[in-house]
Amino acid sequence: MKRTILLISFLIIVCVSFTQVRKEVAFKYLEEFGDLFDNYKDVIITNVDEKPWPAVGVYKIEKSFYYFYTNYHGETLRMISEDSYISAMRFSKYYIYDEFQKLKYFIYQCENCGELIIKFNGNDFEIIKTADETSLSENYFIDINDEFNPLNILKSAKANLAYCKTLWGLPDYDDATENIRKRFKEVNSMDNLIERRNENIIGYYNDDELVKIIVEDESNREYYLENGLLIFAFYPKTDDVEDIRVYFSGNAFKVILGKDNLPKTEFEFHEIAGQVKEDYNDAIIKL
Protein backbone atom coordinates (compact mmCIF):
# COMPACT_ATOMS: atom_id res chain seq x y z
CA MET A 1 0.00 0.00 0.00
CA LYS A 2 1.31 3.40 -0.95
CA ARG A 3 2.22 5.42 2.08
CA THR A 4 1.70 9.15 2.08
CA ILE A 5 3.65 11.08 4.64
CA LEU A 6 1.65 13.41 6.83
CA LEU A 7 2.51 17.04 6.50
CA ILE A 8 0.76 18.58 9.46
CA SER A 9 0.55 22.31 9.93
CA PHE A 10 -0.88 23.49 13.21
CA LEU A 11 -2.84 26.75 13.08
CA ILE A 12 -3.39 29.06 16.02
CA ILE A 13 -7.12 29.68 16.02
CA VAL A 14 -8.64 32.37 18.21
CA CYS A 15 -12.19 32.24 19.55
CA VAL A 16 -13.18 28.99 17.87
CA SER A 17 -16.16 27.21 19.40
CA PHE A 18 -15.34 23.89 21.11
CA THR A 19 -18.30 22.37 19.29
CA GLN A 20 -16.46 22.37 15.96
CA VAL A 21 -14.61 19.29 14.68
CA ARG A 22 -10.93 20.21 15.02
CA LYS A 23 -8.29 17.55 14.33
CA GLU A 24 -5.54 19.69 15.87
CA VAL A 25 -6.99 18.92 19.31
CA ALA A 26 -6.27 15.22 18.76
CA PHE A 27 -2.81 15.91 17.35
CA LYS A 28 -1.94 17.96 20.44
CA TYR A 29 -2.56 14.92 22.65
CA LEU A 30 -0.88 12.59 20.15
CA GLU A 31 2.34 14.60 20.45
CA GLU A 32 2.64 13.49 24.08
CA PHE A 33 3.85 10.14 22.69
CA GLY A 34 6.41 11.45 20.21
CA ASP A 35 6.70 13.98 17.42
CA LEU A 36 4.79 13.63 14.18
CA PHE A 37 7.80 13.15 11.89
CA ASP A 38 7.80 9.87 9.91
CA ASN A 39 4.08 9.46 10.54
CA TYR A 40 1.80 8.12 7.84
CA LYS A 41 -1.92 7.74 7.32
CA ASP A 42 -4.00 5.02 5.65
CA VAL A 43 -7.76 5.44 5.18
CA ILE A 44 -10.73 3.08 4.83
CA ILE A 45 -13.82 4.84 3.45
CA THR A 46 -17.42 3.69 3.54
CA ASN A 47 -19.45 5.02 0.59
CA VAL A 48 -16.49 6.71 -1.06
CA ASP A 49 -18.65 7.91 -3.98
CA GLU A 50 -20.97 9.68 -1.52
CA LYS A 51 -24.15 8.34 -3.11
CA PRO A 52 -27.36 9.10 -1.18
CA TRP A 53 -27.92 6.48 1.53
CA PRO A 54 -31.42 4.97 1.88
CA ALA A 55 -33.52 6.82 4.50
CA VAL A 56 -30.52 8.96 5.51
CA GLY A 57 -29.22 10.85 2.51
CA VAL A 58 -25.64 11.87 3.21
CA TYR A 59 -23.66 8.95 4.59
CA LYS A 60 -19.89 8.64 4.59
CA ILE A 61 -17.47 7.28 7.18
CA GLU A 62 -13.71 7.66 7.00
CA LYS A 63 -11.64 5.47 9.32
CA SER A 64 -8.04 6.74 9.35
CA PHE A 65 -5.00 4.93 10.74
CA TYR A 66 -2.03 7.06 11.77
CA TYR A 67 1.24 5.22 12.31
CA PHE A 68 4.96 5.70 12.68
CA TYR A 69 6.97 4.00 9.95
CA THR A 70 10.57 3.57 8.85
CA ASN A 71 12.18 0.70 6.95
CA TYR A 72 14.15 -0.16 10.09
CA HIS A 73 11.39 0.04 12.73
CA GLY A 74 8.41 -1.05 10.64
CA GLU A 75 4.92 0.14 11.62
CA THR A 76 3.80 1.35 15.05
CA LEU A 77 0.17 2.38 15.49
CA ARG A 78 -0.36 5.83 16.99
CA MET A 79 -3.97 6.89 16.43
CA ILE A 80 -7.21 5.76 14.80
CA SER A 81 -9.87 8.30 13.89
CA GLU A 82 -13.41 7.81 12.64
CA ASP A 83 -15.03 10.76 10.85
CA SER A 84 -18.76 10.33 10.27
CA TYR A 85 -20.91 12.38 7.89
CA ILE A 86 -24.52 11.26 8.36
CA SER A 87 -27.45 13.35 7.18
CA ALA A 88 -26.83 16.84 8.62
CA MET A 89 -24.51 15.57 11.36
CA ARG A 90 -20.72 15.53 11.34
CA PHE A 91 -18.85 13.97 14.24
CA SER A 92 -15.45 12.38 14.91
CA LYS A 93 -13.89 9.91 17.34
CA TYR A 94 -10.18 9.66 18.00
CA TYR A 95 -8.42 6.76 19.72
CA ILE A 96 -4.84 7.63 20.72
CA TYR A 97 -2.50 4.76 21.64
CA ASP A 98 0.95 4.49 23.19
CA GLU A 99 3.73 2.40 21.63
CA PHE A 100 2.36 -0.76 23.26
CA GLN A 101 -1.15 -0.40 21.74
CA LYS A 102 -2.63 0.79 25.03
CA LEU A 103 -5.41 3.37 24.69
CA LYS A 104 -4.34 6.64 26.31
CA TYR A 105 -6.96 9.14 25.08
CA PHE A 106 -10.43 9.06 23.57
CA ILE A 107 -11.69 12.26 21.95
CA TYR A 108 -15.17 12.87 20.58
CA GLN A 109 -16.15 16.00 18.67
CA CYS A 110 -19.44 16.90 17.03
CA GLU A 111 -20.42 20.03 15.14
CA ASN A 112 -22.81 21.99 17.36
CA CYS A 113 -23.30 19.19 19.88
CA GLY A 114 -20.25 19.08 22.08
CA GLU A 115 -16.89 17.55 22.81
CA LEU A 116 -15.63 14.84 25.17
CA ILE A 117 -12.02 14.00 26.11
CA ILE A 118 -11.18 11.04 28.34
CA LYS A 119 -7.69 10.02 29.50
CA PHE A 120 -7.07 6.31 30.12
CA ASN A 121 -4.57 4.43 32.25
CA GLY A 122 -5.47 0.79 31.77
CA ASN A 123 -9.08 0.44 32.93
CA ASP A 124 -8.84 3.64 34.97
CA PHE A 125 -9.98 6.86 33.35
CA GLU A 126 -10.24 10.59 33.89
CA ILE A 127 -12.62 12.94 32.08
CA ILE A 128 -10.47 15.85 30.89
CA LYS A 129 -13.21 17.83 29.18
CA THR A 130 -16.90 17.35 28.43
CA ALA A 131 -19.92 19.23 27.19
CA ASP A 132 -23.16 18.93 29.13
CA GLU A 133 -25.34 15.88 28.62
CA THR A 134 -28.00 17.85 26.76
CA SER A 135 -25.51 19.01 24.12
CA LEU A 136 -23.99 15.55 23.68
CA SER A 137 -27.47 14.05 23.29
CA GLU A 138 -28.19 16.27 20.28
CA ASN A 139 -26.33 13.77 18.08
CA TYR A 140 -29.29 11.47 17.51
CA PHE A 141 -27.14 8.90 15.66
CA ILE A 142 -25.46 7.71 18.84
CA ASP A 143 -26.52 6.55 22.28
CA ILE A 144 -24.26 8.54 24.61
CA ASN A 145 -24.77 6.09 27.52
CA ASP A 146 -23.43 3.30 25.31
CA GLU A 147 -20.87 5.15 23.15
CA PHE A 148 -19.26 7.05 26.03
CA ASN A 149 -19.15 4.23 28.55
CA PRO A 150 -15.39 3.93 29.26
CA LEU A 151 -15.47 0.11 29.13
CA ASN A 152 -17.18 0.24 25.73
CA ILE A 153 -14.63 2.78 24.51
CA LEU A 154 -11.85 0.37 25.52
CA LYS A 155 -13.62 -2.45 23.67
CA SER A 156 -13.92 -0.32 20.52
CA ALA A 157 -10.26 0.68 20.76
CA LYS A 158 -9.26 -2.98 20.94
CA ALA A 159 -11.61 -4.02 18.12
CA ASN A 160 -9.98 -1.42 15.87
CA LEU A 161 -6.63 -3.21 16.24
CA ALA A 162 -7.89 -5.97 13.95
CA TYR A 163 -7.60 -3.56 11.02
CA CYS A 164 -3.85 -3.21 11.68
CA LYS A 165 -3.35 -6.90 10.94
CA THR A 166 -5.10 -6.47 7.59
CA LEU A 167 -3.31 -3.24 6.68
CA TRP A 168 0.27 -3.97 7.76
CA GLY A 169 0.36 -7.46 9.27
CA LEU A 170 0.64 -5.86 12.72
CA PRO A 171 -0.89 -8.10 15.41
CA ASP A 172 -2.91 -7.17 18.44
CA TYR A 173 0.00 -7.28 20.89
CA ASP A 174 -2.02 -8.51 23.88
CA ASP A 175 -3.86 -11.23 21.96
CA ALA A 176 -0.71 -12.42 20.19
CA THR A 177 1.22 -12.49 23.48
CA GLU A 178 -1.52 -14.53 25.15
CA ASN A 179 -1.60 -17.03 22.27
CA ILE A 180 2.18 -17.44 22.39
CA ARG A 181 2.11 -18.05 26.15
CA LYS A 182 -0.53 -20.74 25.64
CA ARG A 183 1.67 -22.37 23.01
CA PHE A 184 4.66 -22.17 25.37
CA LYS A 185 2.73 -24.06 28.07
CA GLU A 186 1.39 -26.54 25.54
CA VAL A 187 4.85 -27.43 24.20
CA ASN A 188 6.36 -27.78 27.66
CA SER A 189 3.52 -30.08 28.74
CA MET A 190 4.09 -32.49 25.83
CA ASP A 191 5.51 -35.77 27.20
CA ASN A 192 6.09 -37.54 23.88
CA LEU A 193 8.58 -35.21 22.22
CA ILE A 194 11.38 -36.76 20.16
CA GLU A 195 14.83 -35.33 20.91
CA ARG A 196 17.45 -34.88 18.20
CA ARG A 197 20.87 -33.45 19.04
CA ASN A 198 23.71 -31.94 17.05
CA GLU A 199 26.54 -30.99 19.42
CA ASN A 200 25.08 -28.37 21.78
CA ILE A 201 21.84 -27.88 19.84
CA ILE A 202 18.78 -29.97 20.72
CA GLY A 203 15.63 -30.06 18.61
CA TYR A 204 12.36 -31.32 20.06
CA TYR A 205 9.81 -32.78 17.66
CA ASN A 206 6.13 -33.58 18.02
CA ASP A 207 6.03 -36.39 15.44
CA ASP A 208 7.76 -34.64 12.51
CA GLU A 209 7.02 -31.08 13.64
CA LEU A 210 9.86 -29.12 15.23
CA VAL A 211 8.33 -27.30 18.21
CA LYS A 212 11.29 -26.32 20.40
CA ILE A 213 15.05 -25.77 20.23
CA ILE A 214 17.50 -25.50 23.10
CA VAL A 215 21.02 -24.22 22.54
CA GLU A 216 23.24 -25.26 25.44
CA ASP A 217 25.63 -22.46 26.26
CA GLU A 218 26.54 -20.24 29.18
CA SER A 219 22.78 -20.15 29.66
CA ASN A 220 20.44 -22.42 27.75
CA ARG A 221 18.71 -20.39 25.03
CA GLU A 222 15.20 -21.57 24.17
CA TYR A 223 13.24 -21.12 20.93
CA TYR A 224 9.59 -22.07 20.38
CA LEU A 225 7.93 -22.68 17.04
CA GLU A 226 4.41 -23.02 15.66
CA ASN A 227 3.66 -24.19 12.12
CA GLY A 228 7.36 -24.04 11.35
CA LEU A 229 7.78 -20.40 12.42
CA LEU A 230 9.62 -18.89 15.37
CA ILE A 231 7.13 -17.35 17.81
CA PHE A 232 9.10 -16.96 21.06
CA ALA A 233 12.66 -16.91 22.34
CA PHE A 234 13.90 -16.93 25.93
CA TYR A 235 17.45 -16.12 27.00
CA PRO A 236 18.06 -16.60 30.76
CA LYS A 237 19.89 -13.95 32.73
CA THR A 238 23.70 -14.03 32.67
CA ASP A 239 26.36 -12.11 34.58
CA ASP A 240 26.38 -9.53 31.78
CA VAL A 241 22.79 -9.33 30.53
CA GLU A 242 19.29 -9.44 32.00
CA ASP A 243 16.96 -12.20 30.84
CA ILE A 244 15.45 -11.63 27.40
CA ARG A 245 12.02 -12.56 26.01
CA VAL A 246 11.19 -11.90 22.37
CA TYR A 247 7.74 -12.48 20.87
CA PHE A 248 7.30 -12.91 17.12
CA SER A 249 4.41 -12.73 14.68
CA GLY A 250 6.47 -12.92 11.52
CA ASN A 251 8.61 -10.04 12.81
CA ALA A 252 9.30 -9.30 16.46
CA PHE A 253 6.52 -7.28 18.11
CA LYS A 254 7.55 -7.46 21.78
CA VAL A 255 10.97 -7.46 23.44
CA ILE A 256 11.26 -7.68 27.23
CA LEU A 257 14.69 -7.07 28.75
CA GLY A 258 14.60 -7.96 32.43
CA LYS A 259 11.47 -6.14 33.60
CA ASP A 260 11.53 -3.54 30.81
CA ASN A 261 9.09 -3.80 27.91
CA LEU A 262 11.10 -2.05 25.18
CA PRO A 263 9.30 0.28 22.74
CA LYS A 264 9.42 -0.90 19.15
CA THR A 265 10.61 2.56 18.08
CA GLU A 266 13.87 2.22 20.05
CA PHE A 267 17.12 0.95 18.55
CA GLU A 268 17.71 -1.53 21.40
CA PHE A 269 14.45 -3.34 20.56
CA HIS A 270 15.64 -4.11 17.02
CA GLU A 271 19.23 -4.81 18.07
CA ILE A 272 18.06 -7.55 20.46
CA ALA A 273 15.37 -8.91 18.11
CA GLY A 274 17.85 -9.03 15.22
CA GLN A 275 20.47 -10.89 17.27
CA VAL A 276 17.89 -13.41 18.51
CA LYS A 277 16.68 -14.08 14.95
CA GLU A 278 20.28 -14.52 13.78
CA ASP A 279 21.02 -16.95 16.62
CA TYR A 280 17.86 -18.90 15.79
CA ASN A 281 18.74 -19.16 12.09
CA ASP A 282 22.22 -20.46 12.99
CA ALA A 283 20.65 -23.12 15.23
CA ILE A 284 18.18 -24.21 12.56
CA ILE A 285 20.97 -24.67 10.01
CA LYS A 286 22.93 -26.91 12.37
CA LEU A 287 20.02 -29.17 13.31
Question: Can you tell me about this structure?
Answer:
- This protein is α+β, with helices and mostly antiparallel strands.
- It has two domains: 23-168, no CATH class; 173-286, no CATH class.
- 25% of the residues lie in helices and 39% in strands.
- The chain has helices at 23-30, 133-136, 144-147, 150-159, 161-168, 173-189, 267-286, and strands at 39-46, 59-70, 74-86, 89-97, 103-110, 114-121, 124-130, 194-198, 201-206, 209-215, 221-226, 229-235, 244-249, 251-257, 260-262.
- The protein has an eight-stranded antiparallel β-sheet, sandwiched between helices.
- The longest helix is centred in the C-terminal third of the chain and has 20 residues, at 267-286.
- The radius of gyration is 23 Å and the shape is elongated.
Topology of this structure?
Elements: H1 23-30, E1 39-46, E2 59-70, E3 74-86, E4 89-97, E5 103-110, E6 114-121, E7 124-130, H2 133-136, H3 144-147, H4 150-159, H5 161-168, H6 173-189, E8 194-198, E9 201-206, E10 209-215, E11 221-226, E12 229-235, E13 244-249, E14 251-257, E15 260-262, H7 267-286
Antiparallel strand pairs: 1-2, 2-3, 3-4, 4-5, 5-6, 6-7, 8-9, 9-10, 10-11, 11-12, 12-13, 13-14, 14-15
